[in-house]
What does this fold into?
Amino acid sequence: MFTLAFESSCDDTSIAIFKDKRLITMKTASQNEIHSLYGGVVPELAARAHTQNILPLYYEVLKEANIKLSDVKLITATYAPGLIGSLLVGLEFAKALAIINNIKFKKVHHIAGHLHAAHITQKIDYPFLGVTVSGGHTTIYIVNDIDKYELIGWSLDDAVGEAYDKVAKMCDLGYPGGPIIDKIAQNYNGELIDFPRPMKYKKNFNLSYSGLKTAVSIYIKNNPNYNIEQLVSSFQVAAIDVLTHKIKLAAKYYNLKRIVISGGVSANSHLRKLLPTLFKDETVYFPEMKYCMDNAGMIGYLGILLYEKYGEDNPKTVNPKASSRLGVKLNK
It folds into this structure.
């Protein structure tokens, strides 16, 4: 069975094709060049770029997979959460294909897709501690199955990736800030600035990044001749320190032996090196690099599993949602 998958929740247009549960092709059009001029994603520009990218990308994946739309038996698409204009482009394109051509359709939650991105290439049993870290989300879940999520921790303000982008903007480093800061920090081994670790020692699993971001801003103001390598390295160590501490705390508290990290920040080299060293009896999983960012592969993979378990959704009744909580919230 061939499955066609769409992801357009933010600024990446991504389309993938699966044969059964095997990903055979995926194409993603990035908008970094557009949004780098503004130091962050501009929703209206993102939606416009999706409309320009989606049709050529669609033809490209069909050609590379050497199939026709008539070969496709299932279409999956992200419906929430995300930028409403961006979601509309991918979701409505997918729904139109499904309705006009009488193809089965399945909606997929963006965060649930991220939580299963590592499953595309790795076998990971349930339950596991699932952590999504990106420019839009910093959340910690207990994942019991493809449709059973318990939200136990989240950022009370900025997502960790958002903090990276804002610090990079303060330093005129460009966008997206995460990869730029990570690359600069890899070359620094000197003394670190003692930036705060907000909420690190709170007894819940929540996080906060606005205070750290503000501390960096104040430091820049008071030290105009700052060392850029020292500054971004110190920021990164502080940001990742709090995150890894909360992950370890949650895994130990709930006695979970599998930890899955996903989202754009899961590509961060410091996080990938540090986190596995903090666990002795647990296994830490990361997606392959191409599945860390927003991608249609994760949407297609989870969509297939959800379709097999629950059947199709009616595309005529599926609407995009800018915000949509995944699972049951356990923490307060």
The mean pLDDT is 96. The chain has ten helices and eleven strands.
